[in-house]
Amino acid sequence: MAAANAHSLSQYAKYHNKVGRSRATSEATWVRYTLIGVALLFLCLFLFIPLAAVFVEAFRKGAETYFASLTEADALSAMKLTLIAAAISVPLNLVFGVSAAWAISKFEFKGKSFLITLIDLPFAISPVIAGLIYVLIFGLQGWFGEWLSDHDFKIVFAVPGIVLATIFVTFPFIARELIPLMQAQGKDEEEAAMVLGASGWQMFWHVTLPNIKWGLLYGVILCNARAMGEFGAVSVVSGHIRGLTNTMPLHVEILYNEYNYAAAFAVASVLALLALVTLALKTYVEWQAARNAEETEREITE
Amino acid sequence: MAKKSSLPGFNLSLGYTIFYLSLIVLIPLSAVFFKTFTLSWDEFVQAVASPRVVASYKLTFGASLIAASINVVFGVLTAWVLTRYEFFGKKIVDAFVDFPFALPTAVAGISLSAIYAKNGWIGSLLDQIGIAVAYTPLGVVVALTFIGLPFVVRTVQPVLEDLGAEVEEAGASLGANRWQVFYKIILPAIWPAVITGFALAFARAVGEYGSVIFIAGNMPMVSEITPLIIITKLEQYDYAGATAVAAVMLVISFILLFAINGFQWWSNRRLGHVK
Amino acid sequence: MSIEIKNINKGFGSFSALNNVSLEVPTGELVALLGPSGCGKTTLLRIIAGLETPDTGSIHFYGKDATERAVREREVGFVFQHYALFRHMTVFENVAFGLRVRPKHTRPNDAEIKRRVHELLNLVQLDWLADRYPPQLSGGQRQRIALARALAVEPKVLLLDEPFGALDAKVRKELRRWLRRLHDELHVTSVFVTHDQEEALEVADTIVVMNQGKIEQIGSPQQVYDNPATPFVYQFLGNVNAFEGRVNAGVAKLGALEVPVKEFAQTHDSAVQAFARPHDIDISRDASAAAFKAQLTYVHSAGSVVRLELKRDDAETFIEAELTREYFSQLNLKEGETVYLTPRNVRFFLD
């Protein structure tokens, strides 16, 4: 009897959440459809058509050309470099993100909001400037330029520069995802773990990490997408040496400027596919996180 | 520095945070200002206020302003449609709003220029009524609208979702019609989010490079954006000149960033919800 | 009659929220819709307000059909459970809202609005808060501002959805007495929804007890408490002891106890439920055929009455009894003692 009641109640709540709007707070049907139509037209123009264009252009000269442009040596080495840059920058920013979020969300200290603003800095800065600063430091005329050339070590116009620029532009992603999440969670559970005798690491592994895993994954997905797709910053530090310091986006640019459109769009289509995968993963993670939150809420109310 | 806390790891985590932040962001950024100070005042003015550079500021800020405004209108509309109405494919559309965040800017750039070129899908249509988009300042606006699209939607959407049906019902029960409810209750509630989204889209547009250079045509004085000026100067080995322009842009970015954060802090306090 | 509700049905998907509900609210009364969560009371209130449309049935306001009338034309004041104050407006502007959104020809001028708002703020004793914003107010203050805002449009009917639900116990008690006094002053027909029986008993002129989308009983607080019409009302209002048993030819057998019941003289062996309030349980040390043998297991002596928990000898169930302090000390009962219980005023319901 109680169970039946709870069932109908949850059904009721579900219905209410889904429709949620009574006659008093919704628009006439024609207004509704006009608004939906205009919004979809705008999104179509700016989102769906550009996406479709990438694939249409990529296959304009047929599948053979398409696959040939992807398996060509320079394209492959560009892919390799892109993967390397992401493989280095994502874990580094992951460690930073967790550490920053831990300090900011679990402790009170002066200058906290200033620190948060500083972490946001790379988002506010033009990617071109992000590249420029490493040229200023490690370039031939830069602070360490002479020392580096004496020791025959190259950072700018070489792989390390590309990695550095990538780290810079993806710097805030994970921290930014974790800080509000961990702030909202508070520190009750961690304190409970400590009271029960857990060590710092045990508390982190068994309490904190499971609580933030979806947020963490979300940050990693976004960070990775940006790391693989960055153009402006790496363009400045790369030097555009084919087969050596070209990432995929840079390779796209070179092919495009050489009027090799089909090849340019072929490589671009791989990046577009990556973007789609990113969106799918991101949506999946959001969905999971929402489901978890819902479950927790249900546990609390029941 | 920290108040007494029962949890461990404060010194380690804050120490590492500051160390890494300084190493990757703060110290390299300071290089911009150190390098700028090697210029004399006249040289600095020469670098940042020559006609070609000033024309690029006008284009960059003007196009960013227009693009961000377009995004305010369509962003609020999109957020509204996504939170209030049910329609086929809504979940996919919702996920797709973030596409400009996920798509590498270079890909967006070549795709947009292919679409809006005279022989492109949309460009050929516009060409018939005498409008050229690709390789003109209009192209810059299109590219900047694309990359700024998610900002307003994603700042306004949660606020609209949070705005319970109750306040709207309260308005209706007090005799307000639908339009009065919108501009007296809903609009005041979402405008801080709209402003924030606008500022974020604007800030992003000002610094944007990848998606713009393909479609802009990059003609000096006409369709050359400021980030491209920096690159051009760098390629001519005019490091100091490039840095001076970069310093101007950096200062503007800082001001925007602090303004946005300050504004959010103010509106959260004023409207009393903790974010 | 202010409000007449006729044969309302409302469903959400497969869930039936209201099942053929009819109700009349006399002018000037304060009526409570009382029931557990999910019983349909809020849906009924929202239908009266026009925030929800019934699937079938009609609503009349002062004799006129209002079923199709939009919420903004119904002239109702609605106080929301979570107040729904406009957080970007000052308290003054919140209260003034209903006047400001009127069409030009019926809108009072600024001086008049100002006068009316201050009058209402004085009525709710919060005039000094006029320039504050809602987030700066306490829960009780928000509640009173929400009420002032609803009254500003001079509603013909005032509707309140769980008006005290979000407040802590002490503030809640103060506010409901205040609401009762305010109603005595204004006499505006009011309907409020609550799940708190104490609140309904204390404040309302009439209580409408609802369960699973149906009205179980309508009556004054005294009537519904003293003469519950159904087993549900008995159990929902106040504490009660329930006994399961069988009845045959005018005699009910509740465990070891046999009670003659005149009205069931013709009933042939059927299940029966019996109810008795804790203050209707007599306790004695002397054995009697008309009594339950029970063991005193617990004494709660803090409070105006002494509550006893007793375990029945003939079943694995407990009986609750209430005694005055004097009578309890006269009896001088000890925990663990065996006593005999005779329920008075027992009500029987056939299953």
Biggest beta sheet attributes of chain C: 6 strands, mixed
| Residue fraction in strands of chain C | 25-35%
CATH architecture designation of chain B: Orthogonal Bundle
What share of the residues of chain B lie within helices?
Answer: over 70%
Largest interface: A-B, 104 and 95 residues
Q: What is the chain-wise order of helices and strands of chain C?
A: EEEHEEEHHHEHEHEEHHEEEEEEEEHEE
| Helicity of chain C, as a percent range | 25-40%
In spatial order, strands of the major sheet of chain C run 6-7-8-3-9-10
Radius of gyration of chain B: 23 Å
**Low-pLDDT segments, ≥5 res of chain C:** none
What is the tally of helical segments of chain B? Answer: 13
CATH class of chain B, please? Mainly Alpha
H/E element order of chain B: HHHHHHHHHHHHH
Number of helices of chain C: 9
Determine the N-to-C terminus distance of chain C: 36 Å
Structural class of chain B: mainly alpha
The helix-and-strand class of chain C reads alpha+beta
Shape of chain B: globular
Low-confidence stretches of chain B: none
Number of strands of chain C: 20
Protein described:
The complex is a heterotrimer of chains A (302), B (275) and C (351). Chain A has 302 residues and is an all-alpha fold. Helix content of chain A is 81%, strand content 0%. Residues 1-20 of chain A have low confidence and may be disordered. Chain B has a single domain (39-271), classed as MetI-like (MetI-like fold), CATH 1.10.3720.10. Helix content of chain B is 78%, strand content 0%. Chain B contains 13 helices and no strands. Chain B is globular. The model of chain B has no long low-confidence stretch (mean pLDDT 90). By secondary structure, chain C is of the alpha+beta class. In chain C, 26% of the residues lie in helices and 35% in strands. In chain C, strand 4 (56-61) and strand 5 form a beta hairpin. The chains are: A mainly alpha (302), B mainly alpha (275), C alpha+beta (351). The interface between A and B is large, with 104 and 95 residues.
